[in-house]
Amino acid sequence: MTDRPLTRNIDLNRGPLDIAGYEAADGYQSMHAIAKGLSPDDVLNIVKKSGLKGRGGAGFPTGLKWSFVPRGDGSPAQKYLVVNADEMEPGTFKDRLLMEGDPHLLIDGMLVAAYTIQANMAYIFLRGEYIDAENVLKKAVKEAYQRGYLGKNILGTGFDLDIVLHTSAGRYICGEETALLNALEGKRANPRAKPPFPQVSGLWGKPTIVNNVETLCNLPGILAYGVDWYQGLSRGVDHGTKMFGVSGKVKNPGCWELPLGTPVRELLEGHAGGMRDGLELRAFLPGGGSTDFMLPRHLDLNLDYDEIGKAGSRLATGTMIVLDDQTCPVGMVGNLMTFFAHESCGFCTPCRDGLPWVDEIFRGFEAGTGNEKDLQILHDHIEYLGPGRTFCALAPGATAPLGSGLKYFAEDFEKHITEQRCPYKH
Amino acid sequence: MSVQMSSDSSMIATTSTRARELNAAEIAEIEHEMSLYPDKQAVGLEALKIVQKHQGWVSDESLLGIAKYLDLPASDLEGVATFFNLVYRQPVGRNVILFCNSVTCWIMGCDDLRQHIIDTLGIDFGQTTEDGEFTLIPVPCLGDCDKAPVMMVGEKMQRKLTRDTIDEIVVEARIQSKTRADV
Question: How close is the nearest chain A Cα to the Cα of B44, in Å?
């Protein structure tokens, strides 16, 4: 038993455990538990009961997502599991750590997921830039084949699974699950219309589950130690532990596995050591670049999906970006708008044309040419780029820091206009 | 991403003279990829990456060679090649610098480091040095934000960058290129 099921094997000084080391640390117990007589429905029920929510950003219940895959007689024989390892959300650095630090945990989790939905083919969709993770995973997959955890008739269950490691070639939009499927099929990574959802018609038209790396890494513990243990890990409403990160001008930036329900203050002031000397906390994005800003008054909230949601933001990836009082908030939002404008896939008009427009206005503010009309155009885009106006969630994601930034940093925007320069530049 | 060459460096870019169709080693690797996917279209992007690994970039000749080999419309393949950040449709330097300019690196001072690269190497985003050694390309968040600012040089992550460490990395990369050329 452990209270850090995701990171207990991770020691970056010695590199990841090989398969023997991983097995010695209770690894692959989930597949042994399945071999002792758990049916796919049994596993589905365990995962549903555990309350695990997807760790990629949306926080959708994992068991429920799996349950949409057609099962039983008459369902398509070919199904796919796809791992979303395309970590590209600005300020997010958790899946890299999990894959580089303990690759067998991911394969272990993939076995659980693939068995449950009865997929005999799985693709790991890995960011092209993650060369170190690629090398570590390649070796781990090879070891798992040699040891009989992958391939035909795994542990005598009659269940087969092959894993292919696919390295991508960039573009943030590939993190959107239907865009990811198009990329995997060798097409331009434009998102697809939903429905049909991938669970019913996904990769090459077959039922497909796309799960984030961290989500899958939760599964081995749940199978090995049980639902009660898993639910006992958290300090709040949501269950289990989660990877939380802090970056920006804090004393000790980093990534830690903590119980869900940990107070924000404990993460920021405890683990991350608080702000660097001479700097004050101005605001923070709680879960990557497409979440709403939160303020120092939110520090005593707990890191739970609902609690952060009620404060007007999202827990999302759980990796926090900290804004200090000497960094320009307008410049920070502008940087994010540059990112989103660059990463728009170009498919729908509000995103393709709206984001560059917004980005250009921010450049004007920086250059000292911004005016009140520009500010109004930015406000208008909160709606124009918002949910329901676009084909996927990329542009609505951009409106999170844009809208909350305009609200919380109104004075800074005004100063850029009245002073015709960035007041943070000396 | 479009990679534009700096004013007159196209003559000496490292890879521009090697434009050709596919060779046997590339075809063997493409054949291997075909065993992993149920159709040829899925192999298109893999083939582009294979060619780039061997040649440093993807020339028109190679792209047409892949399209012919996999029986894919060249226009579709070009659509894919130009969509993805890491497929280079123009020659690049021996060392591609993927420079993170996303939000955490921005907070941690990457604009200043970008200016330093402009001042010392004479290249900005999308440009290649006169000697064909370095190409500078911006890249979305590299997922190492607790060690920002960061960049990749070739396949290697470079973390907690300062002006001084960038100078050292540049010198080291030049030495390594020279060593490779001498072998």
Answer: 6
The Cα of B120 is separated from the nearest Cα of chain A by a number of Å equal to 23
Q: Which positions in chain A touch B148 (Cβ < 8 Å)?
A: 247, 253
Q: What's residue B14's pLDDT?
A: 53
Number of structural domains (chain A) is 3
Stretch A50-69: mean pLDDT: 95
B29-51, pLDDT tens digit by residue? 999 999 999 999 999 999 999 99
Residue B139 identity (one-letter amino acid): V
Give the end of a domain, one of A165, A199, A232: A232
Rounded Cα distance between B107 and B89, Å, is: 32
Residues A81 and A227 in one domain: yes
A297 and A337, same domain (yes or no)? no
- At A264, the pLDDT band (50, 70, 90 cuts) reads very high
Do A281 and A166 have their domain in common?
A: no
Question: SS3 string of A68-126?
Answer: CCCCCCCCCCCCEEEEEECCCCCCCCCHHHHHHHCHHHHHHHHHHHHHHHCCCEEEEEE
Residues 196-225 (A) with a CB less than 8 A from some CB of B: 204
List, in sequence order, every residue forming a beta bridge with B137; answer none if it has no partner: B98
Residue A359 maps to which CATH number? Answer: 1.20.1440.230
Q: What is the mean pLDDT of residues A288-295?
A: 97
Assigned CATH class of B95-182: alpha beta
ipTM: 0.96
Q: Which domain holds residue A41?
A: 19-232
- Among A320, A88, A352, smallest CA distance to B139 is for A88
For chain B, how many helices (H) and strands (E)?
Answer: 7, 5
Consecutive H or E run containing A381? helix A372-384
